[in-house]
Every structure is written in C-alpha cells, then in structure tokens.
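User: hey, got a sec? need SDR family oxidoreductase folded
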Amino acid sequence: MTQTQQAQKILVTGATGTVGRQVVNELLTRGHAVRALTRDPAKADFPAGVEVVRGDLTDPDSLVPALVGVTGVHLITFGGAYFAPLETGPRILELARAAGVRRVTVLHGGEATPLEQAVRADDGVDWTVLMPVEFMGNALEWADGIVAAGEVREPFVSRLSAMVHEADIGAVAAVALTEEGHGGQEYVITGPEVLTVGDKVATLAAARGREIALVELTEEQAVAQWREAGHSQEVIGFLLEAYGNTPEVGRTVVDTVEKVTGRPARTFGQWATEHADTFRAG
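Assistant: Yep! Here you go:
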C-alpha cells in the first residue's frame, strides 16, 4: 500500500454471502479495516479483526451506527428474509452521504433493480457497479453427484462460460472501494478463459485425481432433475435460457480483473485445486 493509498474503514453489506466474504478477505489482505454488516452477528464467523455489526438493508436507519467513520460501502441489491429486491436505495445513499461515505460498490443483481438504479442516479458518491458472470463456485452443485457416483449430469454440455473466481470479484470491489479512478464505472468481471461443461469436468477430475464421467441430459431430463431438486418453475426457466442460450457477455473474456487489480484473473484450475477435497469421497 502506497502513501496515497491510506488504510480506510469499509462497510461490507451482504458480508456473509459468497461475494461479501471475498470482499471482506480482500480488504483485510490490503490492510484496510472492515466492518461487516449482518442480520445475525452470532452466526457471522469472520476472521479476527473484522468488526461485525447488526443491521438490515430493509431498515436503512439500522445502518446509521454502522456508517460512522467509513469511507466506502459495498452494497447488495436484495435483502430481508426472502431476498426481495431492495426499495431502500435512496435512503441508504442519503445516510451514506451524510456519514461522509465517498465510494460505493454495488453487486449487480442480474437485472435493473431499484437499489442499483438509485446508486447509478446518485452523483454524491463515486459508485461502481460490479457485474460478474457465472461464479466458479456454481460447480459445487456437482459435488454430491461426483462423490456418490463419479459423474456430472448436465444438459447443453457444449455451452460456453467465462466463469469467474469469487475472490476476483472481491478483489475488484476492494480496489474500487479504496482507490481513485473507478467512479461511474460498470465492470463486467470474468475469468481468463472460456470453458465448456466438459472442460470444467476434466479440470475437476484432474484436481481430485480421479476420473469423472459426463452424462449429457436432454432438456426434458434436465427439467425433471431440476424439479426433483426443488427448483421453482421460474428458476427452471432461467436455467434453460441461461444454459441453452448463454448471452454473449457470459461467454466472452474481458480483462477487468487485471486492469483493476494489476494481476491476472484466477483460473478454474486454481479454483478446482482449492476445492478438490469437496469432490473426493470421504
């Protein structure tokens, strides 16, 4: 950290989530103080040094104590017990400005949510919208099938993905929250390569040291499998569209991670090595 990059205190909302934890870890690694917001501090389980505070984005005034002394805030766009789109963005931003917050990152929720729209419309803070593609962590959904039967059962196995390591999302957020030059930016965040389902399975097999069979399902078989897993019709429709007609943004590598953080994006091979034990029988 240079003299111009002073240690700062950052409030991370959604801190117990997949991305939130990575934002916390990256900020700590970079020498910043972290205040983690959660509805249930007793279950937070953060590293030593993280200040855990209670708050709820559906109740903006509950954030007032958490905003004291912070220079940046990481926001998510859903909240409450049922993760409905937050309607409280304007009030959250009003309180943040009043507390002296200078920078805000918001994790894109897959659509134009009210909170993200409020952030984009706010000229009182330097905001950055983070737009990651498919998470590498989605491969964890295959763990049970791999451990139990040594196989992955998926439709559309030739589909392409520029999937991103969650730690790289955290790294981009940490830089945007603590350094100049990222205000008003929309950052699509990808990994460094485009992979098919077969590529992913082969990578996991190499990491765990044992072969994995790839069984291609028909669309009808996939729907039945997802329904059996308890997915709603809305989720099933989303999966059919995302997998059967992956948008260009989800299958195109961009160099955001390297441009923002100064180092290459992590590969799926790295992710697989980190999680190899999850795909091995006990």
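Quick note: DSSP finds eleven helices and eleven strands in the chain. Let me know if you need anything else on SDR family oxidoreductase.
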